[in-house]
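U., I forgot to send this yesterday:
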Amino acid sequence: MPGSSAESLTDRVYIEQVRSLYLHLLPAVAMWAAFALTFWLAFRRTPEPGWLLLGVAGLAASSLRIGLTIIFRDMALTGALDRPKARRLEIIFALPYFVFALVLGLLGALIFRSPVPEIHMLTICVIVGYCAGTATSCGLRPRLAIASMLAAVGPPILVSVFIPDPAYLAMAFIATSFVLGGARSILVRFEVAKAEIARRMVSISLARRDVLTTLPNRLALQEYFDENAVLISPHRPIAVHYLDLDGFKPVNDRYGHATGDALLLAIADRLRGAIRSGDLVARIGGDEFAIIQFSLHHADEAALLVRRIIAAIEQPFIVEGHSLTISASIGTVVSHDRHQPLESLLKAADARLYELKQARRHSIMFAMIA
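Result:
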C-alpha cells in the first residue's frame, strides 16, 4: 500500500521535521540582537582579543543562518521534497546553527572567567533563551537541538563549577538539570510527532480509501472532519481546499487510461508529501481532491499550503516513459465556525475554484483579443 511502508513513513516524518526548521525567522533575529548586545557590553568591560574573535564569529554565524533561512525558506516550506533534498536543506540550516551554539558556549565560558558578575548574569540569560528557542524551533530534529544546547551551555557550566562561589555551583547544577529536562522533552516531542504522522497514514481502513490511489475517500474525509473539528481550539481556523487537475483529460485521451491512472498515483504521492502532519488529503472524484487543514495559527498557512501543492504538481511526471506536465487549480475557504458542516465548506471551496478558473479564462480571452 503506498504510503504505509516503514520506509515511506520514515521519509515522511523526516521531511516534516526538516520543514519545521524553516518555519520561524523572528527568534533567530532576536537571538542575533541579544548576542550582539551581550558581546558589546562584555567587550567594553574587558576588551580581550579572544572575545573579539568569538564575538565576530558568532555574529557571522548567526547572520549566515538568517540569510540562508531567508533564501531557502520558500523551498523548504512550499517545495516538493524527497529525502535527499530534505537532507541538503537540513545541512544548510544545521551548520551555521551549531557553529553559533559552539561560539556562544565558548564566549560564555570566557565571560564567566572574568570578574564581572553583571555580565555573567546577562550571559546566562542569553544562553537560557537560546536553549529555550532551540527546543522550540529545532525540537523535531533531536540530534541538532540537543547537540546545540550542550554546545551552548556546556562550557559555561564547566567554568562555573570551578568558581569558588556556591551561587555559581548552584547555577551549574540548575542549568544542567534544565538541559537534561529539555533534552528529554525534545525526545518525547519527537516520538509524539512521529506517532501522529504514523497514525494519520495507517489509521484509515481500506474501506475508507480510494481504490486506485489509496488516499482517503469522501467518507473518510467526513469522518476525519467530524472527529477533529470539535477537538481543536475555537481560536484556530480550519481551511478546506478543493483541487482539480488542469491538463489531465488530454493526458488520458492521448496516452490511455492506464497512463492516466499511473499519473493519478504519482499525483497522490506528491500530495501526501506536500501536506503537513495533521492535515488530510482525499480523492473525491476523477481528478478532484480535497484537503483539510486543522489548527492553523494564521490564515496565511492555508495560502502557504496552496503554493506548496501547486509547486509540487507543476514538476514534470515521468510515467511509463512519458514526461507529462500538468497543473492544479485550488479553491480555498478558511472558517472559524466549528459548527459549519464539511459539505458546505467543500461547496464554498468548489465555488471559489470555479471563480478562479473563470477569472483565468477571461484573462486569457482578454489577452488574445488585445
